[in-house]
Design a protein that fits this description.
Layout (H helix, E strand, L loop, with lengths): L5 E3 L3 E2 L1 E4 L6 E8 L5 E5 L11 E2 L4 E4 L9 E2 L5 E10 L4 H14 L6 E3 L3 H11 L17 E10 L1
Parallel strand pairs: 1-11
Antiparallel strand pairs: 2-8, 3-7, 4-5, 4-6, 4-9, 5-10, 9-11
Helix pairs in contact: 1-2
């Protein structure tokens, strides 16, 4: 099947995620740019309660949420391909949230997207959250794929 991209000129966009499962999910939305910089679109309230990443069964998550969030998403240069990743887990992503809060704190951000120039801490924390094995060998990760879903969307900024 041919690989195709959706060209998007400099424009506003939002992300809508519907939890069609019968249980709550924990969600994170990331963008990885052509320069390998990671931007965290959700969660985006860095002083909120621990369950900020939770999306209840049959709930729709809208980011940014009109009337609540005081920011917007705009595609901007440099031209290239962006990878939008939506990660949903049936397990809470506590380590990931802590790593994101540390980055937001260093950047002095209380709400809104954050940029991670070195995303290794976020990825490591996500792997720890999803790991199903008992503590031991930290270089090997085991995942229960029934507890995880990842959707990847490629966007081209022109």
């Amino acid at each position: 099947m041919p690989y195709s991209l959706f060209p998007i000129p400099y424009s506003l966009f939002s992300v809508h995620f519907t939890n069609n499962e019968s249980c709550e999910l924990y969600c994170s939305i990331l963008v990885i740019g052509s320069s390998a910089e990671m931007v965290v679109l959700f969660p985006n309230q860095w002083t909120a309660v621990e369950d900020i990443m939770r999306v209840e069964a049959q709930q729709i998550l809208r980011v940014p949420e009109v009337g609540k969030d005081n920011f917007s998403f705009v595609t901007q240069g440099p031209p290239g391909v962006l990878e939008l990743l939506i990660i949903a887990s049936s397990k809470p992503l506590r380590n990931t949230l802590q790593a994101l809060r540390r980055i937001a704190s260093r950047q002095g951000t209380r709400s809104g997207p954050i940029a991670a120039k070195e995303p290794e801490d976020i990825i490591g924390s996500l792997l720890d959250d999803l790991d199903t094995q008992e503590r031991g060998n930290s270089s090997i990760h085991r995942f229960d794929l029934t507890q995880l879903a990842v959707m990847s969307i490629s966007l081209e900024v022109v």
